Amino acid sequence: MIAELPLVVINVQRAGPSTGMPTKTEQADLFLAMYGRNGESPAPVLAPSTPGDCFFTTYEACRIALKYMTPVFILTDAFLANGSEPWMIPSLEDIPTIDVSYAEASDGHYMPYERDEETLARRWAIPGMSGLEHRIGGLEREHISGNISYDPDNHDLMVRLRAEKVAGMTREIPPTEVYGDSTGDLLVLGWGSTFGAIRTSVEALRSEGKSVSHAHLKWLNPLPADLGENLLRFQKVLIPEVNSGQLIKLIRSEFLIDAEGLNLVRGKPFRKSQIISKVEEIL
Amino acid sequence: MTNAAAPTLTKKDFVSDQDVRWCPGCGDYSILAQTQKTMPDLGVSKEKFVFVAGIGCSSRFPYYMDTFGFHTIHGRAPAIASGVKLANPDLSVWVITGDGDGLSIGGNHLIHLLRRNLDINIVLFNNEIYGLTKGQYSPTSEFGKKTKSSPFGSLDRPFTPPSVALGAQSTFVARTVDSNTAHLQASLKRAYEHQGTSFLEVYQNCLIYNDGAFSHVTDKAVKDDNILDLKHGEPMVFGKEADKGIRLDGFTAEVVTVGKDVSADDLLVHDEHDQNLAAILANFTEDDLLPTPLGVIYSEEQPKYEALMTEQIEAAKEKLGEGDLQQLIAGTDTWEVT
Predict the structure, then answer these.
(1) Measured over all CA atoms, what is the biggest interatomic distance in chain B, rounded to whole angstroms?
(2) What is the pLDDT of residues A266-282, one digit of tens each?
(3) Structural domain count, chain A
(4) Of A51, A85, A119, the domain-final residue
(5) Domains recognised in chain B with CATH numbers
(6) CB atoms B71 and A135 under 8 Å
(7) What ipTM was assigned to the predicted interfaces of this complex?
(8) Residue B64 near residue B18 (C-beta atoms within 8 A)
(9) Does any domain span residue A209?
(10) How far is Cα B47 from Cα B49, in angstroms, rounded to an integer?
(11) 10 Å Cβ neighbour count for A94?
(12) From B65, B72, B91, residue closest to A128, measured CB to CB
């Protein structure tokens, strides 16, 4: 985190804690990805929603890691990892190249923590690049110079800069897609592998004339900038998760919305009937 | 790795602009100075040096070298250094660690780097104490040592670092002392020259928490009688008057007086390529009657991991052709549905 180097961590979640139920699925590591570090050190967190989506989510995570010089967490789970679906294999020509830019040697001292004005990404120089010799490490860095610093104001600034860098990634997130009407009685909000169960449930409920819509998050940190306004267009929000309530805590604290949870922590993915009966109970 | 076109470097080129934060009188200062003095002689251009450290007093080392440096995770410098080396085998990669970082929390990482034999140089500062955390017993502290964390004496049997390295299939094992500047410089050079993972233990005095731990090999009055300066192909003679020698009785080493009961021809001759001899020498420190071996205990030529990796990739390319990412993604078990 403090080194601000590109890294992609793929967490294929399974039922925990500890070795738990190794072959069973769970979505219980969201808080681990969000907060499981010492100090305040936010990182981008992405979650694919289908087996095929794992490909593009990983590509996107690599792009973000390199563009912003940051570790990125991907949360999949046992259900996605063991799942399959028809998937149109992409042509490499259609996938944009990820451009990586390195620092260039100049006459002055290389400043490893000088940041890009827009992204706040620091400049990258790798061993072997002449004139760019520098040291990085786990101790707090001085803004711009990257030297070790215990200065209180500098630490406060660096904590904020690292957080601001991650918060600014909302510029990478496309507008939230709402399936169904953009306003109504209930929005079912999901993330990760629950996509299929939620979508088929919402389709069934809508065909019965229920005012239900579905939105699914790929970006869990930062949350999409337009998410709050989308949530407010519905009377109620239901958040099904294969955990005892993690995304719901983020949503409640971020948007002060009295969302409801559907939480089954049984090592199994949701069934359509479980979601439908919960929606019918709420409406 | 050598670069003939590199400009002539001096010690000054390797001194960073950062204030050194070790305690006054720490043995680390000498190790830093000898490293800065030795690096210009290696014929490597400056940008090719990478110093990777874990956590601890010793591991602040990279901050003081004006090279690429990474002060990483406690005990994990070997893993990160392995990545650095494999990504760019042209680099001269150095791992700086201590008896705590390298042998406690990082023991596992250390042994696997040693057995893989990447061309990385490990310098382990052994002060037989946890210094940065203010004086608890370490994996090299002697049995019964009273420290803040062992007020009635440590119950742990200590590691002998060269024995650990040999047990992990290390291809180069040497030992030196912080205050013997010439020996330290020569040892760093030998470690660099070795093609494979080098393990160099440096006896390092911690003035504050374990002062005098190595006085038997640093005090002028007694050191000559306690140091066995290993020289390949030469008989093992030591002592102020160079009148003592090492003889083998079966597999047991013993000290004999040269001239009195034995002639120089009866003495053990050092062969740094003999693994059995190395194992015996590494164990000398556990016997109070035997001198402490310094110098190259063991060296052997084995293929370097990165060379094997490159060979394997080339052989696979030759057999299977250049890789095709599109084909790889498609796999062999896919079809198109219309």
Answers:
(1) 96
(2) 999 999 999 999 999 99
(3) 2
(4) A85
(5) 11-213 (3.40.50.970)
(6) yes
(7) 0.94
(8) yes
(9) yes
(10) 6
(11) 6
(12) B91
Does residue A93 lie within any of the structural domains? no
B→A contacts (Cβ < 8 Å), by residue, are: 16, 18, 45-48, 50, 53, 55, 62-63, 65-73, 84, 88, 90-91, 325-326, 329-330, 334, 337
End-to-end CA distance of chain B: 55
Q: In chain A, which residues have their Cβ closer than 8 Å to the Cβ of B92?
A: none
Instruction: Tell me the residue ranges of DSSP E strands in A37-107.
Output: 45-46, 71-77
Query: Does the structure show a pLDDT above 70 at A221?
Result: yes
Dihedral, CA atoms, B234, B239, B240, B243, nearest 10 degrees? Answer: -80
Q: Spell out the residues 6+ positions from residue A83 whose beta carbon is closer than 8 angstroms to its own.
A: A50, A51, A193
Closest A-chain CA to B329: A89
Place of tokens 């400009």: B7
pLDDT (mean) for B234-242: 96
Chain A residue numbers touching B15 (CB-CB < 8 A): none
* d(C-alpha A237, C-alpha A214), whole Å: 10
The parent domain of residue A229 ranges over 178-282
**Does the pLDDT at position A59 exceed 50?**
yes
Whether A147 maps to a domain, the answer reads: no
Residue B335, pLDDT score: 87
**Average pLDDT for B129-136:** 97
Q: Which of A259, A208, A206, B223 is nearest to A250 (CA)?
A: A259
The whole-angstrom separation of Cα B17 and Cα B32 is 14
Measured in degrees and rounded to the nearest 5, phi and psi for residue B323 equal -65, 150
Which residues of B are less than 8 Å from A134 in CB distance?
68-69
Last residue of a domain, one of A60, A85, A110: A85
List of chain A residues whose C-beta atoms are within 8 Å of the C-beta of residue B72: 137-138
Structure-token pair, residue B235: 């008989």
